[in-house]
Amino acid sequence: MGRKRLIVQADLTSEEDQAFLAWVKQKLRRRKLAEEIRLGLRLQYEWARGQAGAAYPSAEHVEQPRQEAACLPEHLDEREKSPDTSAKLKGLLQSF
Amino acid sequence: MFDSKIAYVDRGFGFVKAGTRPGERNLVLQSLIVPGRPMPGFGEQTTMVYRGQTHLVGRTAARQAGIASQADLADDAPVNEESRLLYLAALAYLARRDGITRFKVVAGLPVDTWEASRDRLKQLLLSIRGETVELQVGDELIRAVISVEDAMVMPQPLGSALDFLLDAEGQLQGEREFPAAIGGQHVWPVEAVAGWRWCVVDIGFNTLNTYVLDDMEPVRRFCTSPKLGMAHAYQIAGRAAGGQGALDVQAGLRVFEGAAQMEEAYQEVGRQITRLIRSWNDPSIAFYLVTGGGAYRLFKHILPGEGAKLLADDAQEANGRGYYKAGVQRWGANG
Predict the structure, then answer these.
(1) Gap between the Cα atoms of B178 and B164, Å rounded
(2) Which residue of A has its CA nearest to B282?
(3) Which of B61, B68, B16 lies closest to B37, judged by CA?
(4) What does the buried/exposed string (b/e) look like for B162-190 if buried means 16 or more CB atoms within 10 Å of the residue's CB?
(5) Which helix (H) or strand (E) holds A91?
(6) Is residue B296 a contact partner of residue B315, using CB atoms and an 8 Å limit?
(7) Which of the residues B4, B212, B258, B265 could staple to B237 if both were Cys, CB 3.0 to 4.6 A apart?
(8) CB count, 10 Å around CB of A37?
(9) What is the rounded CA–CA span in Å between residue B283 and residue B332?
(10) Strand pairing class (B288-291; B197-203)
(11) Residue A32 half-sphere exposure, CB side, CA atoms within 13 Å?
(12) Contact flag A66-B179 (C-beta cutoff 8 Å)
């Protein structure tokens, strides 16, 4: 659903979106529909990453081991964690 | 007969996004409403009759009244009379066709006006009590009686944060996959992610909203609303094109899109957003979620080459979806 809307919303007159659309279609032909949603964020990311550099992302790119881009920030390991994140969420929403 | 339902209304400077539960009606409406009369024979029109006054709504207002923006993006725009009319129009569209609809509404405000204006917006929404609205959308005539029974007003980017974290029942359930490994793995339980420090980068028409959550608590010094939205890119492109205004560029976007000056303008705004984020110099921010109507255009220009960012799914509507999930969390699925 999200993907269809993304494509519909795109301004297909621009060269970039035409290329993006073609690239997504090429990717999806190779994969089962059930994988589509799970792939969504990664496809968008990889497209943007490919655009940021000169290299156009290849169809094989997804299959390759992905780059380790970030370490777990220190505070995630070391600080005292809240005992119940759900309770904190409820508290946050109650404040609105 | 009456219905009771949760609705989200995300009133941005550019567009109003509104809806109820996923799969039901939703709308994206240009944030424009002006008094005026419909002009038969001039294409599909959207008009609203309220308290005896006819208004042109959304694109119809832009086309027939020849205006491109309302209120000059005034600071009080989120809570002024035009806003109230836009909320009425949006809720009428979501209401049942006969009888009364009682809404519980979740809405949002830019980060920097949220604290000062949240109570006013909540009061504005709660002032909608038994209002009769006649909305004409093309051939469809909607006569609705609407009331707002309860309302929540949250900082806009928190909507995208909640959409990312919560499932359809408003619970912190499941897993999220990251394009780059964080702490050595790509997939993390949502409950763990909610405990991190992370940032929403919400690119709207007028403002950029940054919002950092740390274990589900906002970090105030990183919650900002600089004027770094798409309008800034349109201004830059307009200047490069010989002095056209931001709204002229937006109106002619199909012409500008793909032009070198437009792409350079996107790059420049992306650079400024990246500079802002890097100025925080906070390595404990685990990742950046880029969202809002400008997200698709600017994503590649923000933190270029860095893996700790991802693009919100269906980014223009992510805030609204998150509002809805927050509503389900607060009031239950049936409101």
Answers:
(1) 12
(2) A73
(3) B61
(4) bbbbbeeebbbeeebebbbbbbeebebeb
(5) helix A85-94
(6) yes
(7) B265
(8) 12
(9) 37
(10) parallel
(11) 2
(12) yes
Contact B78, B11 (CB under 8 A): yes
Where are the extended beta strands (E) located within chain B? 2-11, 15-19, 26-30, 33-35, 46-50, 53-57, 100-109, 131-137, 140-155, 175-182, 185-189, 197-203, 208-214, 217-218, 288-291, 309-311
B208-214 and B217-218 as β-strands: parallel, antiparallel, unpaired? antiparallel
**Which tokens sit at B317?**
């509507």
DSSP per residue over B204-239, as a string? -SS-EEEEEEETTEE-GGG-B--S-SHHHHHHHHHH
Cβ atoms < 10 Å from Cβ of B60: 27
Convert the pLDDT of each residue in B285-300 to its tens digit.
Answer: 999 999 998 999 999 9
Q: What is the pTM of this model?
A: 0.77
Residues of A in contact with B264 (CB under 8 A): none
Closest CA to B265 of B292, B293, B230: B230
Maximum C-alpha span of chain A: 51
Helix (H, G, I), strand (E, B) or coil at B170: coil
Structural tokens at position B136? 């004409």
Q: Over the stretch B143-199, which tens digit does the pLDDT of each residue have?
A: 999 999 999 999 999 999 999 999 988 899 899 998 888 888 889 999 889 988 999
ipTM over 0.85: no
Task: Give CA–CA dist B182/B172, Å, rounded.
Answer: 19
- Residue among B165, B299, B330 minimizing CB distance to A48: B299
